[in-house]
Amino acid sequence: MPKISSGNFFEDFNLGDRIIHPLPRTVTDGDVSLYIALTGSRYALHASDTFAQAVGYERRPLDDLFLFHMVFGKSVNEISLNAIANLGYAEVHFRQPCYVGDTVRTESEIIGLKENSNGKSGNVYVHSQGYNQREELILTLKRWVMVRKKDSSIRSGIKEIPVLQKALPADLPINLPVISKIEPSLSGSNLFWEDYSVGERLNHPDGITIDNSDHTLAAKLYQNNAKIHFNAHMMQKSPMRERLIYGGHIISLCRSISFNGLGNAMWLYGINAGTHANPTFAGDTIYCYSIIKELIAPKRDDVGLMKVQTIGLKNMTPEEIETPFDEHSKYHANVVLDLDYTLIVPKKQDNK
Amino acid sequence: MPKISSGNFFEDFNLGDRIIHPLPRTVTDGDVSLYIALTGSRYALHASDTFAQAVGYERRPLDDLFLFHMVFGKSVNEISLNAIANLGYAEVHFRQPCYVGDTVRTESEIIGLKENSNGKSGNVYVHSQGYNQREELILTLKRWVMVRKKDSSIRSGIKEIPVLQKALPADLPINLPVISKIEPSLSGSNLFWEDYSVGERLNHPDGITIDNSDHTLAAKLYQNNAKIHFNAHMMQKSPMRERLIYGGHIISLCRSISFNGLGNAMWLYGINAGTHANPTFAGDTIYCYSIIKELIAPKRDDVGLMKVQTIGLKNMTPEEIETPFDEHSKYHANVVLDLDYTLIVPKKQDNK
Amino acid sequence: MPKISSGNFFEDFNLGDRIIHPLPRTVTDGDVSLYIALTGSRYALHASDTFAQAVGYERRPLDDLFLFHMVFGKSVNEISLNAIANLGYAEVHFRQPCYVGDTVRTESEIIGLKENSNGKSGNVYVHSQGYNQREELILTLKRWVMVRKKDSSIRSGIKEIPVLQKALPADLPINLPVISKIEPSLSGSNLFWEDYSVGERLNHPDGITIDNSDHTLAAKLYQNNAKIHFNAHMMQKSPMRERLIYGGHIISLCRSISFNGLGNAMWLYGINAGTHANPTFAGDTIYCYSIIKELIAPKRDDVGLMKVQTIGLKNMTPEEIETPFDEHSKYHANVVLDLDYTLIVPKKQDNK
């Protein structure tokens, strides 16, 4: 029995395999502060007990994206340690608020396998589920990654591609308390669900430059141990030449940047699709813009759903780009994220 | 209604305007640890429950400067997002100890406006007040910033400059518990109020080098979203060419550095005046020296007041400079901070 | 009386001196999160209440190495502020688990003094002891450092070298609760005490690159104020030319890296000897390998002891080096750590 794990290769996965990822993690106030410091998040819901109580919570819930990184991070060692690329996300659904003191763990199921024609790699489709210490489902996500093969000479020809929904259904349960009237002087935004229109574009003005210590601190905090983020010595010999920034960190930075324009959209309902269109490295400055894709008539009186596409850019302001694609219909070299997600946005409430 | 806020310009302010800054923030143990890691603070009062209890507290109070950064940080989005320069501070008064679990928020009043003769900018004078969740005033500060105008062709000629006190009055309330005898073997200093003399100069020997990740983590922790600190892509086109370090971070570093010489001066009574004489950038090493300006006879038996001037330097030791000014009576190019503040210093207590 | 402390020089120490180090420090959840973010530690015992409870604890104990850094860090100001080199460790014994909320302080005794023949420095041997707020001993360590003399012309000729044990005795008390069966699907490792063999070598595959912000944040968190770690301006004029990374940070990184191979060895019994063979600087990538030196038959049914040598490397993988020594029996230039320590490893337990 080898004592050193070298992670799973494409041949190690079988359709239907269930994996219990180790290393449950209790979330603390230290994580909350670090998440704010690492991402620049300014949503008061996650940072202020008084605000959370005014909205309808007993205390601050954790940021949905922080939970995403924790649940995702736990799956890396068994799923994507030998990944060549993270190809995409789908059906990411935020199910349950979590709080400081909760313990998060992850399980995964292999839902698809496709050997690539070059014989050197294959795509692994995985359905990961995050649980809290009461075994309540807090978050589900599907993703697919290109994983190295151990032996390129042996072909299995497997091609089991799962059907992935293009968008989450709009009628999934929304486990929020009844949301009270939001006070713009506290939330930092006076925009509510009724204020947005399909097709409108928000050019978020802020830019955040990433340095090596902050993105590596973030990935280590999430216990995401993918080597490409940490090992400059190894990466020098790769085509990228340097450490690659964890794509989830880019999602978090775009979320912080989009606070100016989406400041009352405090909750993620889900992520419908996500692509890291180009890599990011230390020194890059991240910008983003958002397009409102759909407003979904709410069943609840207090909140509505809003489908949004956020395009993350490096070293280019939103004003400098019209569409994320170049003349060959490929992503523009400065586009680093194409995220299709659904936000929960509070509705206007009259004074009662 | 524009959905993107581009911050306030000089024309947006009116004398007497009151602004409730959004984003109340609950302070946690994560903030305390990060503040220590980011600044190198070594005051046991803020880091040790046993020490705080021996001094007279129920538990560790927060560092006064951490609260300053939080209260200040909350005011940036509405006051100084379009600032060209932070010109000064006055009448910063620390009113009330805060503890982990408290929620901090800020309100401001516009107390002065002066259009600059070039028509391109004006100075905004603001009085900001920090409150805890019980609406108790924890901290007040006045500052003035040079803010861009939207339209340089329209002149208002406004010139309403408030009278700012050169120093806080010495008889403001001091909301500390009765301070017990300080044990030098625990506090790290055997110097008490009686040990200092007016005019004496302390050349603090330590130097701390700043890197980009640590100063940006600090500013993000305080939710200070001034663009000049974060956006290297934008700053490349500015005369500075790179990200400017948040001036408050320099104040905190000088406070940590001055522990060697002022280690028992655990509390700030207030800041009388402060100037960021030159900018600091990643890679700069901060040093400082302090001059005792005034010893104020205490009303209390346990503590006295001590007015101190601390000069922050970059890439130059205190031994290498005699006064902060050059031969043209301008700040020496290596002077980065001129801080006039009043410390609360414990008096000698005999064994009882 | 000088108000500025310039630290102790060789002449300031006397055999038998007892030093109470100041600055007791309450450990918080913020420290736990920062330790994970700074080191990449993945031991679930320190990060998960549910895991700790399944193992036999009431809640997460602190990482032994975090406590080592805290106890060590408190001793720097009085012992090694003027150190030229940290020469070694011995008899480091972890005595007692600590928890969030505990307050740590350090005392030291001078147990040896040896003037060096060049007259410029001497070696100081110190026995440091860490206590919690109940005055329980949590950690003892011996170390020796080369400290500058004030005056090289005056010779004392002192040569009192203490006898240091080459290894901790195997029968020291082990203050752990009775350890329940470890679940590999939670701990991340299926290797138990019985699975290791003397002489076997584990080439841990991970590498972690260090940047300036992360190692300086770590040292500041531990309130270790040794100037060589922080002051680039001073270090430019030294032979090293740049800031030297705190050796304890390298130990922590090697511990994180060796998780892959030693994942169930959650506890340190002690450190028998340790040498920082070469300096490390920002930009270096740390790797390591481990050799099992001794398996010590446990008195307890639940855990055994395992003596391990871990060799830390910079910018070189374990596969590229056979022994830590070069042809002149000196440490290879890429070896940065030679650590001889004893781990507590759970034994196999049948299902009951």
Major sheet of chain A: size, sense and barrel closure?
A: 12 strands, antiparallel
Category by helix and strand content of chain A: alpha+beta
Principal-axes geometry of chain A comes out as: globular
Oligomeric form of this entry?
Answer: homotrimer
Q: Name the chain pair whose interface involves the most residues.
A: A-B, 49 and 40 residues
Overall pLDDT level of chain A: 96
Q: What pattern of helices and strands is seen along the backbone of chain A?
A: EEHHHHEEEEEHEHHHHEEEE
Number of helices of chain A: 9
The CATH fourth-level homologous superfamily of the largest domain in chain A: Hotdog Thioesterase
Name a few traits of the molecule.
homotrimer, 352 residues, alpha+beta, Thiol Ester Dehydrase, Chain A
Overview of this structure, please?
The structure is a homotrimer of 352-residue chains. With 352 residues, the first copy, chain A, is α+β, with helices and mostly antiparallel strands. Chain A folds into 2 domains: 14-149, Roll (Thiol Ester Dehydrase, Chain A); 187-210 and 245-352, Hotdog Thioesterase (Thiol Ester Dehydrase, Chain A, Roll). Helices cover 20% and strands 31% of the residues of chain A. Chain A has 9 helices and 12 strands. The first copy, chain A, has helices at residues 29-39, 44-47, 49-55, 64-79, 184-187, 212-221, 232-235, 247-257, 259-262; strands at 18-20, 25-26, 83-94, 103-115, 121-131, 137-148, 159-160, 201-209, 267-275, 285-296, 303-314, 335-346. In chain A, strands 1, 2, 3, 4, 5, 6, 7, 8, 9, 10, 11 and 12 form a 12-stranded antiparallel sheet that branches. In chain A, strand 5 (121-131) and strand 6 (137-148) form a beta hairpin. The longest helix of chain A is centred in the N-terminal third of the chain and has 16 residues, at 64-79. Chain A is globular, with a radius of gyration of 20 Å. The N and C termini of chain A lie far apart (68 Å). Chains A and B meet through helix 1, helix 3, helix 5, strand 8 and helix 6 of A and strand 2, helix 1, helix 6 and helix 7 of B.
